[in-house]
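Morning. Coffee machine broken again, so started the prediction first thing and wrote up yesterday's gels while waiting. Chain of 163 residues, entered below exactly as on the submission form.
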Amino acid sequence: MAVRPIVLYPNPILREKARHADPASEEVRRALQDLWDTLDDHTGVGLAAPQIGRPLRMIVVDATRARHPVSNHGRVALLNPRLLTAEGRISVREGCLSIPDLVAHVPRAERVTVAGTLPDGRPATLAPEGFEAVIFQHEIDHLDGVLFIDRVRRARDLKARPK
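Came back before lunch.
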C-alpha cells in the first residue's frame, strides 16, 4: 500500500491505548500492509500501528533484520497481541523509530509467550527468546502507550544514538 511517516515522540497517539484490530476489516488489512511497507523502508526490527498514526492493536516483527543473527520466527504480523508469560531477565540496548535520537539498556524478560491473531484470523501463540522476545515486548508496549524511555531506570542511562 504505502510507506507512512513515522510518528515521533511526543505525539499524543504514542501515549494512547490502541483499540482492537478486527482481521476482517479492510482498514486493518491496509494498515498491516502499510506497517510492512514502512518497516521495510527503515532500519528497525519491529513496528506498531500507533507509530504510523493508526491506533490499532497490531504489530510487525522481523528479527531477521537484526545486526547479528538471532533465533527468530521470521517475519511475524500479529493482531491484538498479548504477553501470556515472561521469564528470565535480559537487558539489551533498545532504540525506537519514534524516538530516533536516543537509546538505552532496558530490562526485559528473556523468554516470553505471546498470543494473538494472525492476519488471516487464525489464533497464534509464539515463544520468542532473547532479542526477539525484547522486540515483541517493545512493540506490545507501544499498543498500551508505553515507550522504552518509560522503562529506563535512570535518566543518565539514556544515551544519544550513535550516528
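Residues 12-160 form a domain with the Peptide Deformylase fold (CATH 3.90.45.10). Going to sketch it on the whiteboard this afternoon.
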